[in-house]
Amino acid sequence: MAKTVRDIMDANPPTVGPESQVEDVVRLMGEHDRSVVLVVNDGGRCVGIITEADLVIGDEEGDIHIPHYIELFGGVVFLEPLRNFERKFKKAVASRARDLMTEDPVTIEVDTGAREAARVIVDRHHNHLPVVEHGRLVGLVTRADVLGALVED
Fold this sequence. Notes:
36% of the residues lie in helices and 25% in strands. It is an alpha/beta fold. Strands 1-2-3-6 form a four-stranded mixed sheet. A three-stranded mixed sheet has the order 7-8-9. Helix 6 (114-124) packs across helix 7 (143-152).
């Protein structure tokens, strides 16, 4: 019988609230030996996801500079998108989970089949999918979980 996400998910993934300190996120990752922490609101809904990549500013992102600009007719015209600067700056000074998380993560329903979960993971280029039931977080499924289930089938 084909496995569902319910069969292969971690039913107790590490979670924090949006106001949690970044230090708490790092501690949870270490304690659970996981590269992901889910951000859950008071209603039990997954509102964000934080991965190890969110905690590290890589060499290519390490140079946070104000984008190049020109002054024209008494105004300023930026020659690069400001959103890249804003994203890097926000990440560099984050103190709370809400400042660091990727908002509105892609989720998957608990009764979805493992093959469909694999498709979503591949199509969306994700390694982790929060699992929801009636909109509330009930677990986490990873690329490895899905691959293991597909091999067993």
